[in-house]
Design goal:
A hairpin with a 6-residue loop joins strand 19 and strand 20 (about 505-510). The chain is α/β, with parallel strands linked by helices. The protein has a 9-stranded mixed β-sheet with strand order 11-10-12-13-21-20-19-16-17, sandwiched between helices. The chain contains 19 helices and 21 strands. It folds into 2 domains: about 5-290, Rossmann fold (3-Layer(aba) Sandwich), CATH 3.40.50; about 300-545, Class I glutamine amidotransferase (GATase) domain (Rossmann fold). Bound molecules: glutamine (GLN). Glutamine (GLN) binds near residues 368, 369 and 477.
């Protein structure tokens, strides 16, 4: 019988509910349980694919091609698991299913309403994940904040879910994450916002079993006491989650606070555990590995600077998977990796690349859309290519490195990607054939994991040590094969491609310490204990190159 943990948020968004959810999942997995996580996003978009990273942060691509909320990236990294589209439920998806069913006549004769039809559909989607995975515990993180109009049907649905699986049967519990602010002047921790938010929960029939208090400093004993008294939860179920130096520390903080025991008790999990005794011993090891990872992460012995050139550099969350992939390399190589964000438009100014890149040890050009700052990225690539600066280019970066090479080495000055210049006489990057005729924007790119073949004797093969790999994609354009032979004759080699050899997947420059590009997104598959091979090779090359300095 699957058990459910429902994580809600109070007072305000941005409290790191996703990290709390991921951390709890990690702790339970380490205890020996099988766990999966669902993210509920109460917006009307069917998925995150059509949202601007400026507003919503990075779009995380799952292996099945779902364009999901970035929290799913955290779940995958913490739980070391691959999720699928069903694990991200949005209002858009729920309403779409209900309206399709209504048109198909499934509710014939009925008035279709938010309660029970939308709420039933929400629970059907949750049960589908539980049944398909057959895990011991499903974590359900409800995005947004209690009190939001959009969240109401979801709160009602999980209230019913809790009632259905039965309070007495210990099969579901509510964790409420809330803000406990501190007044600057006296540093006093204020519990009133938490009290109000729990009151709002109560009004809709939900009683929290555990309250996670997000605060600047650890919750004082007296604060816990107050929350316990006013919110009617035992004191030991008030968990302190102060600001952490890094997100990987949070599972250990929550463990020290006794959250695992609270959940074990609340869901009567020791019984489940007894039946799984042998698995427990093996999995318990996982927390040791995590601690070891954290120790390496927090005690670097060397330091490098890497520039990420992009156009969403002001929003912290826009490049979160790239940052995490570098963090995984940081632990593996014990290297502090300082990221210097460079606005691509700034590179377009005179001497831009020289000025902005002269002090960094490596350059990362991430994926992207839209032509703002395009020439700046091309200038940065030119600088890296001609100055032996290690460079890793991903998706759009890969495409632009082809444009740069064709323009400056092959001499076709007006070469471009068809995405940015439909009139170019040299569309070295062209629309994918399967994209022709597509005019709808949602979920129509080439998306998800696909097979990639790697040529032996290439740097790519040295890095992956495999003839075939699988990586995730998100793009509409690709290398135009008409230019392939000419490009390769001048020293830029396409080292990996699709099984039918029609789609170029990786490129590398022979005479350069590290000038590698890939059409896919390696950052999505990087995990704390298993950094993405391309990122790791990039960092290791930089370290080797600078070891004599
Ligand atoms: N805009 C490019 C394309 O659609 C690159 C996409 C990306 O970087 N994810 O092909």
């Amino acid at each position: 019988m699957t058990k459910f943990i429902i994580i809600t948020g109070g007072v305000m968004s941005g409290l790191g509910k996703g990290v709390v959810t991921s951390s709890l999942g990690k702790l339970l997995k380490a205890k020996g349980f099988t766990v999966t996580a669902i993210k509920i996003d109460p917006y009307l978009n069917c998925d995150a694919g059509t949202m601007n990273p400026f507003e919503h942060g990075e779009v995380f691509v799952l292996k099945d091609g779902t364009e999901a909320d970035l929290d799913l990236g955290n779940y995958e990294r913490f739980l070391d698991t691959d999720l699928i589209g069903e694990d991200n439920i949005t209002t858009g998806k729920v309403y779409r299913s209900v309206i399709e069913k209504e048109r198909a006549g499934e509710y014939l004769g009925k008035t279709v309403q938010i309660i029970p039809h939308i709420t039933d559909e929400i629970n059907r989607k949750i049960w589908q994940v539980a049944d398909d995975t057959g895990v011991d515990i499903v974590l359900i993180e409800l995005g947004g904040t209690v009190g939001d109009i959009e969240s109401m049907p979801f709160l009602e649905a999980v209230r019913q879910l809790h009632m259905d699986v039965g309070e007495e049967k210990n099969n579901a519990l509510f964790v409420h994450t809330t803000l406990v602010p501190e007044l600057d002047v006296v540093g006093e921790q204020k519990t009133k916002p938490t009290q109000h938010s729990v009151k709002a929960l109560r009004e809709i029939g939900i009683e929290p079993d555990i309250i996670v208090g997000r605060s600047k400093n650890k919750l004082e004993k007296s604060t816990k006491k107050k929350i316990s008294l006013f919110c009617d939860v035992p004191e030991k179920a008030v968990v302190s989650s102060p600001n952490a130096e890094n997100i990987y520390r949070v599972p250990l903080i929550l463990q020290d606070e006794g959250i695992t025991e609270c959940v074990m008790e609340g869901l009567n999990l020791s019984k489940v555990l007894e039946e799984k005794e042998n698995i427990c011993v093996e999995k318990f090891h996982q927390m040791e590995e995590w601690k070891n990872f954290l120790e390496r992460f927090e005690n670097p012995s060397s330091e490098i600077d890497i520039a990420i050139v992009g156009k969403y550099t002001e929003l912290e969350d826009a490049y979160v998977s790239y940052e995490q992939a570098l963090n995984h390399c940081r632990a593996k190589t014990r290297t502090r990796i300082n990221i210097k964000y460079v606005e691509s438009e700034e590179l377009e100014e005179k001497d831009g690349p020289e000025e902005l890149l002269k002090d960094v040890h490596g350059l990362l050009i991430p994926g992207g859309f839209g032509d703002r700052g395009m020439e700046g990225k091309i200038d940065a690539l030119n600088y890296a290519r001609t100055n032996e600066l290690p460079m890793l280019a991903i998706c759009l970066g890969f495409q632009l490195s082809v444009v740069e090479f064709v323009r400056n080495v092959l001499g076709y000055e007006d070469a471009h990607s068809y995405e940015f210049d439909e009139k170019t006489p040299h569309p070295v990057i062209d629309l994918l054939p399967m994209q022709r005729g597509i005019d709808k924007m949602g979920g129509t790119m080439r998306l998800g994991a696909d097979r990639i073949m790697i040529d032996q004797g290439t740097k790519a093969h040295d890095i992956y040590q495999k003839d075939e790999i699988s990586e995730r994609h998100r793009h509409r354009y690709e290398v135009n094969l008409e230019y392939k032979d000419e490009i390769e004759s001048k020293g830029l080699l396409f080292s990996a491609y699709s099984p039918n050899k029609k789609r170029m997947e990786m490129l590398e420059l022979k005479d350069h310490p590290f000038y590698i590009g890939c059409q896919f997104h390696p950052e999505f598959q990087s995990r704390p204990m298993k950094p993405a091979p391309l990122f790791l090779a990039f960092v290791e090359t930089i370290l080797d190159k600078n070891s004599g300095e």
